[in-house]
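Help needed: design a sequence for this.
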């Protein structure tokens, strides 16, 4: 078995963004040409929301009348009339392809009158810039969206003026989105989905949502059926710029009944708000320093808050997932116990198939390390189906590599090779071809050194 599989699997499981360069310049081009081409997803098949319209109405209000910081927004805002979108800067080819797919979905699923133009002023300008340029302004951001700007230079110049303040907005006329051109194709696409959706509608993220990109846990990478319903409701004729929270709350029930009649037949569930203390603890747990004592304590604090809140949903599971990720190399047995706790709550929470697939990848890796790969095959196959529908190429590539190794352990070498090759195409989209080629180069260099005794 070639060692590049293990190298790439580690890159996927640790969410690594760089691999040490192996100096094989004469081989790199040959390797790239020999690899399977980058794969892409077909037609999106979103799952309709599974919550009641009463719960969805509460979600809509929370999403539209607050910012992630907790600051309240005084009025409802959206675009009026047809919306134009323009790509600027240095967009890679994949960005245009994914933008076309996204605009088609917004037209078809959210019924928004939106189209791309090639030049001239646009309502929404998506500027492809470098990660370095983004980090000069927002060091922790992968990408971002701002009001009343059409270029990064304009925003940099005016960022401290009232025009750049979302709370001062009374209608949406001009929005700027800034996305890195030097990220992987999937990262670029994910930014397109989240930032374009926020340019059109919700400005808040809610950890209580299990089936949405409007959630800082980042399990969902493309707009879901719930997200499209929220956007479609935002552009319903009953809603207008300048409406207050109370005015929107009054007209929202009949809007949702018309757009999502099945939601009227689902019983509303009592949902508690997410305390700021839990959010802060999770953010600290997600900070830098893999497995650091501070991060572990923060995740433990979030788990304790969830217990005190009496939660039994995905929010109760999330800190245990984080604890498992932080401890999977130092204390794999404890990590497996944390993953088991996460699954305990995810298994009883509807709409958490994507979250469960993430946990499956970690549990399967542990089973493979113990030589129990064949036992993991049914769960891996289920997770692969989920990730294909969810369009997460990075995790899909990881799951396929895990399946390949499980098949190898089961004595199915030919099928293992086929699955492993399949994973490369998804990895090129999910992680970027440069990372994949360097991982393959590293594996070849290691294999050569081992065969020659170097």
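Sure. Designed sequence:
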């Amino acid at each position: 078995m070639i060692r590049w599989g293990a190298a790439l699997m580690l890159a996927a499981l640790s969410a690594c963004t760089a691999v040490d360069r192996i100096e094989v310049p004469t081989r790199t081009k040959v390797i790239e040409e020999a690899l399977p081409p980058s794969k892409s997803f077909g037609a999106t098949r979103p799952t309709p929301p599974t919550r009641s319209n009463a719960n969805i109405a509460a979600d809509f209000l929370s999403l539209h009348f607050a910012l992630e910081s907790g600051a309240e927004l005084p009025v409802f805002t959206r675009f009026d009339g047809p919306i134009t979108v323009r790509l600027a800067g240095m967009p890679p080819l994949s960005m245009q392809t994914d933008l076309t797919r996204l605009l088609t979905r917004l037209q078809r699923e959210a019924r928004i009158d939106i189209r791309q133009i090639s030049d001239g002023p646009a309502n929404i300008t998506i500027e492809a810039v470098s990660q370095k340029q983004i980090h000069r302004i927002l060091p922790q951001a992968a990408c971002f969206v701002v009001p009343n700007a059409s270029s990064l230079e304009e925003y940099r110049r005016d960022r401290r003026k009232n025009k750049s303040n979302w709370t001062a907005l009374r209608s949406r006329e001009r929005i700027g989105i800034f996305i890195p051109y030097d990220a992987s194709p999937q990262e670029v696409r994910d930014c397109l989905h989240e930032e374009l959706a926020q340019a059109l509608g919700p400005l808040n993220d809610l950890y209580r949502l299990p089936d949405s990109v409007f959630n800082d846990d980042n399990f969902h990478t493309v707009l879901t059926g719930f997200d499209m319903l929220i956007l479609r409701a935002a552009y319903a004729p009953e809603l207008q710029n300048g409406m207050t929270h109370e005015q929107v709350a009054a007209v929202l029930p009949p809007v949702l009944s018309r757009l999502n009649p099945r939601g009227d037949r689902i019983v509303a569930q009592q949902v508690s708000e997410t305390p700021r203390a839990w959010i802060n603890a999770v953010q600290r747990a997600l900070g830098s320093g893999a497995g650091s004592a501070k991060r572990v304590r923060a995740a433990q604090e979030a788990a304790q808050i969830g217990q005190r809140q009496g939660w039994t949903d995905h929010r109760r599971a999330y800190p245990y997932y984080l604890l498992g990720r932080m401890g999977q190399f130092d204390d794999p047995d404890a990590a497996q116990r944390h993953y088991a706790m996460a699954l305990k709550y995810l298994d009883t929470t509807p709409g958490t198939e994507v979250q469960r697939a993430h946990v499956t990848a970690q549990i399967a890796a542990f089973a493979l390390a113990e030589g129990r790969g064949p036992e993991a095959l049914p769960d891996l196959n289920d997770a692969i189906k989920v990730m294909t529908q969810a369009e997460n190429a990075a995790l899909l590539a990881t799951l396929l590599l895990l399946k390949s190794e499980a098949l190898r352990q089961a004595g199915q070498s030919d099928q293992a090779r086929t699955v492993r090759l399949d994973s490369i195409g998804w990895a090129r989209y999910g992680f970027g071809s440069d990372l994949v080629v360097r991982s393959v180069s590293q594996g070849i260099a290691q294999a050569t050194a081992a065969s020659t005794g170097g």
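The longest strand covers residues 83-89.
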